[in-house]
Amino acid sequence: MKSKILILIACLFLISSCTPGKSELFKETDSLVESLQTTYESYGLFGGSEHAKTTSDGLYTVTPIGRLINVKIQKAAESSEYESLMEVLKDHYKSNTRVNDVYICQAGTIMIDCRNQ
Question: With pLDDT > 70 as the criterion, what percentage of the chain qualifies?
């Protein structure tokens, strides 16, 4: 009985830790990461703008640039919000071998690096 309760608590923790607002963001970024392995060698320097997606809540825009994926918060955001989002994305991609790094670029947005090594 105790093991069932522990499993239930663990499941609830996992469900609650996955922010519902980020699930659509993960869907969009996952799609672009996957496409760089299956469909596109690169989106090109300017070719990615036609593949840009904005989440339905209007909070994030995801744009591929070459083999990088740019994630921008579409509201006035403090650097702490970008740092928090970067950590969430790093955690999401930590075991994905197609992603080399997730970092805040000099423009202040987040990059998901899928470049070949």
Answer: 80
